[in-house]
Design goal:
Length: about 100
């Protein structure tokens, strides 16, 4: 799954990132799927799409579950940071709705 340079900014689906983090934490597509309200096959497709978009394999799939690849371990750390930043952004936006800046 060779990467390369991207001619333009890549748009990532935050849901796909959250799915990847949840699967990584659960160690299994089957265990993560109910938490994300999606079927295991739908979740697998979502992860494959993320892998294609990023150009790297994130997970090694096996019968008992999944294991992070070395690239997946690095991407997981960054995905958590991105999601935390997004959560902060939405919290700020909610606060601004409640208490608008004058």
């Amino acid at each position: 799954m060779g990467g390369g340079t991207w001619p333009r900014p890549v748009e990532l689906d935050l849901g796909a990132l959250r799915s990847f983090v949840t699967v990584s934490e659960e160690g299994s597509l089957t265990r993560a799927a109910p938490q994300l309200s999606v079927s295991a096959s739908g979740l697998s497709r979502r992860i494959h799409q993320l892998e294609r978009k990023l150009g790297v394999e994130l997970l090694e799939r096996s019968r008992p579950g999944v294991i992070l690849t070395p690239a997946g371990e690095q991407i997981l750390r960054q995905a958590r940071k991105v999601l935390a930043a997004c959560d902060e952004l939405f919290a700020l936006a909610r606060e601004l709705v409640i208490n608008p800046v004058q």
